[in-house]
Amino acid sequence: MKSILYIFILLITLTSCNDAPVIVTDSAGRMNDILLVIDNDLWENEVGDSIRQILAAPVDGLVREEPQFSLNQIEPDSFAGLLMKNRNYLKVEVSNKEPGVSVTTGLYANPQTGVIIRGKDAAGIIEQIVNNAQQIKTIFNDGEIKEKQRLMKKVGLNVDQIKERFNIELIAPRSYRYAAPDDKDFFWLRRNIKEGTMDIMIYEVGRHKIPQDSNVVASITKVRDSVGSLKVPVDNGKFITERAFSPYVNESQVDGKFAYETKGLWEVSGQFMSGPFLNYAIYNEEKNNWLVIEGYIFAPSAKQRNYLFELESILKSVKFISQED
C-alpha cells in the first residue's frame, strides 16, 4: 500500500499544468555531437550552409582539419522518443512568431542544451544564425566542457601537490600521472593514449615576462620555448613552438581572471615531431605573476579534436585559492 501511495505522489509531482507527465531522464550522445532538427530542404540549401560554417568550422591549431562539432540532421517529425534525449540539439523553425534565438536546458533530459532558431523564412533564419553565431558556439562548447569536467571529477586525480604549490585546484582524471615528481616549480602531467601521449605543464613566470602589448605573441612564444626546451626531455633537439605556424592568441578568462589563450603547434627542433598545444597564461593579482598551464598532444596518426577538447576542459577547470585561505 505504501508503495502505491509513493508512486501516486511521484506522478503528481512530475505532472505539468496540463496534466501531462514530465519525466526528465539522463541525456545521451557522444561528446561534441549536435543533433540538427531541420527540414531537409533547409538543411540542403543556404540555411544548412550557414549552420555548417559556424558549428562545423575547423578547430584552430590542429595539423589536419577537424570540425569543432559533429553534426547529425533529422527531420522535425523524427524528433521524438530517444532522439529527444540527445544532450545537444539545435532546432530550426519557420514560423510567423517573433524571429530570434532561444535556449533551453534540461527540457527533455539532463544535462541537455537546446538552441531553437526561429525565422519567417530562410533569409530570416540565416540572419539569426549569422547575428548569433559566436553565442551559439559558446553555449554548446560551455555545456560540453561542464559535462566533461563532471565526468572527469568522478575519476579525479589527486592534485594536492599542485594545490599546495600554486594555490589552485583543477580537475584531471586519474589516467594522468606526475612525470616530474622532484621538480617543485614545474609540474608535468602525462597520459598514455593508444596513439601517443597527452601532456600538461604548469609553472609560473614573472609579470614582466609577458607584457600586455602588441608583442604578446612573441612574448608567450619566448616563455614557452625557454621553459619547454629546458624542462621537457627530448632526444637530439629542443621542445619549442613550430616556427612555420603562427600561433593564435586571444584574450580570455579563467576563473574570472584575465588570461591569454594561445593555440598553435609545437615541434622538436631537428626532428619530424610535432603536434597541437593549448596554452593559458593567467594573470594572478595576488602574486603579481602569470600562471601558465599548457596542454599538448603527440598523436600524429590520430584524430585530435577530442583530445584537445579534454585538455581544454582540464585547463579551464583551474580555480584559484586565496593565499590567506
User: CATH superfamily name of the largest domain?
Assistant: Mog1/PsbP, alpha/beta/alpha sandwich
Overall radius of gyration: 23 Å
Order of H and E elements: HEEHHEEEEEHHHEEEEHEEEEEHE
| Total strand segments | 17
Proportion in helices: 25-40%
CATH topology of the largest domain: Protein Transport Mog1p, Chain A
Determine the strand fraction and express it as a percent band: 25-35%
CATH class of the largest domain: Alpha Beta
Write up this protein.
InterPro entries: DUF4837. It comes from Nonlabens arenilitoris. Pfam families: DUF4837. The chain is α+β, with helices and mostly antiparallel strands and 325 residues long. The protein is elongated and about 65 Å long. The N terminus is likely disordered. It starts with a helix and ends in a 5-residue tail after the last strand. The protein folds into two domains: 137 residues, Chitobiase, domain 2 (2-Layer Sandwich); 165 residues, Protein Transport Mog1p, Chain A (3-Layer(aba) Sandwich). It is built from eight helices and 17 strands. Strands 9, 10, 11, 12, 13, 14, 15 and 16 form an eight-stranded antiparallel β-sheet that branches. The protein has a five-stranded mixed β-sheet with strand order 3-2-4-7-5, with helices on one face. Strands 1-6 form a two-stranded parallel sheet. Helix 3 packs parallel to helix 4 and helix 5 packs across helix 8.
